[in-house]
Amino acid sequence: MDEVEAAVSRDEVTVVVAHSERATLRVGDVFLKVDADQARIEAEARAMSLAPVPTPEILWRKPPALALAALPGTTLGSLGGASTGSAAAWAAAGAAIRKLHDGPLPPWAGRAGRSVAALAAELDAECETLVTSGLLPADLVTRNRQVAEAAFRPWTPAFTHGDLQIAHVFLDGDRVTGIIDWSEAGQGDALYDLATFTLGHEEHLDDVIAGYGADIDLDVIHAWWSLRSLLAVRWLSEHGFDPFAPGCEVDALKARM
């Protein structure tokens, strides 16, 4: 459920996103998420029930599927696409993210809560693969691995979404109407969410931070941009997505050079 699509017929099935791990279909105003990992579906439903921000209504849940009602409004855009919305809309998104991060902690670690040691080991292995496979040039990988180092520091656990792309936050004007795709949620580093939300749209970072209402270490945001992109490039390439498209992950890596 990566974005709202206008005027979908009630008898038309639209594939919103699909790969070997999961798929999301839209039929009218219902989104059907099918996931091979039932633990992930259960975690998503539980996270939505705990999140202190608007989320889609769960219509029903029956393995291997989760049916969700569509949210009103539109997103601010997508990675690689033109960004939309006023500065106030981006600030409103920042305020909603802050409300999430200030909420009671869920009792499990999420994607943004991996230990520094585990994350560094994963990143080093992925960087080696990117270079040896020839997928990315060595100098690009090396420079962004250096930038990513700033993310490896102590952080206070927050309620994090874990995959807070701008296509996952819906607004009606300057009001956030809901946040979708909670399968990676849990305790984690708040700056991971802020970095994910602004990846590829650096021009709106100040607006988001203004709405968030806290001092932010920009070096850590830059680090997460590099780290997330390095970890994503190969997976995206292998699952039918294009991280080399303008404004996407590889361009985010090049911006750090």
From TrEMBL:
<keyword id="KW-0808">Transferase</keyword>
<dbReference type="InterPro" id="IPR011009">
    <property type="entry name" value="Kinase-like_dom_sf"/>
</dbReference>
<feature type="domain" description="Aminoglycoside phosphotransferase">
    <location>
        <begin position="28"/>
        <end position="214"/>
    </location>
</feature>
<dbReference type="GO" id="GO:0016740">
    <property type="term" value="F:transferase activity"/>
</dbReference>
<dbReference type="InterPro" id="IPR002575">
    <property type="entry name" value="Aminoglycoside_PTrfase"/>
</dbReference>
<protein>
    <submittedName>
        <fullName>Phosphotransferase</fullName>
    </submittedName>
</protein>
<dbReference type="Pfam" id="PF01636">
    <property type="entry name" value="APH"/>
</dbReference>
<dbReference type="InterPro" id="IPR051678">
    <property type="entry name" value="AGP_Transferase"/>
</dbReference>
